[in-house]
Amino acid sequence: MGRRDARVEQPERWVFNRLVADYRARPGYPEALADRLLVLAGGAASTIADIGAGTGLLAVPLARRGARVAAVEPAGAMLAVLREEAAGLPVEPLHAAAEETGLATASVSLALLADAFQWVDPERAGREVSRILAPGGVLAVVEPRLAATPFLAELQALLAAANPRARPRPPERLPQLFACAGVAVAGREAWRHEERLEPARLDAVLRSISLAGPALAPAALEELLAATRRLAERRGGAGWVREIALTWGRRAGPPR
Q1: Alpha carbons 194 and 65: distance in angstroms, whole number
Q2: Are strands 238-250 and 133-146 parallel, antiparallel or unpaired?
Q3: Can you give the pLDDT at residue 21?
């Protein structure tokens, strides 16, 4: 979502402003995940804060299901795409960060962070979720990870060779987020989602990864893209397979 001391008024500090063109090529989420999130939120006409909404990969499907979505995103370029994708839907784009959303106190039935938790300050974001979440509301964190397929295992090795920071890291501080939000974890669920990426889209998705596109020198990035295309050819195509993990908990009190 952002850098430790970055403000939304500093567009140069938000790497996602430089990734937005390629970010549009990223695979979305399974329909079953959007269905489940809507149930957790309380059904159609519920109010959802999609924190770190990006280009609207979940904000738009949730709004199409009848939810009112406050799409909180600190990268202005991402928010511009989201506005385009959400035209005519009950989505309110908010140029703000997870730690200070600007939403009213106790105003949302579901606070969602999808592929965004790794970018937030878990303590400050947790306190903000505690403030905006209504009694009986749900905090939901969605974490997509690449599955252990032969193609993706080799791809991750290529990424790690190009940028050592792309190697697996210790688990994020998810318990801290829930504790600061005053929400106990109640459930963990998972889905598997796969899309086949043709070469141009595969290039774009790789460029959209923060540890690849903006982190590598142009020559190193082009070498990575070329190596990945050769890998896809050897493996019979690029299957982008993700394990989508949902962790959620409900705040005490009756749902709104």
Answers
A1: 22
A2: antiparallel
A3: 87
pLDDT tens-digit series, residues 68-104: 999 999 999 999 999 999 999 999 999 999 999 999 9
Q: In the predicted model, is pLDDT for residue 13 greater than 80?
A: no
Please give the Cα distance from 98 to 115 (Å, whole number).
13
Question: HSE on the CB side for 236, CA within 13 Å?
Answer: 2
pLDDT band at residue 3 using 50, 70 and 90 as cut-offs? very low
Nearest-angstrom CA–CA distance, 187 and 18: 35
**What are the backbone angles phi and psi of residue 41, rounded to the nearest 5°?**
-75, -20
φ/ψ region of 237 (left if φ > 0, alpha if ψ in -120 to 50, else beta) reads left
Q: Tokens 């990870």 correspond to what residue?
A: 145
Any long-range contacts for 101-105 (C-beta under 8 Å, 24+ apart)? 101/49, 101/51, 101/70, 101/72, 101/128, 101/132, 103/49, 103/70, 103/72, 103/132, 104/132, 105/131, 105/132
CATH code for 11-145+171-192+244-250?
3.40.50.150
What is the per-residue pLDDT for 10?
Answer: 47
Find the mean pLDDT for residues 37-47.
97
Give the domain ranges of the chain: 11-145+171-192+244-250
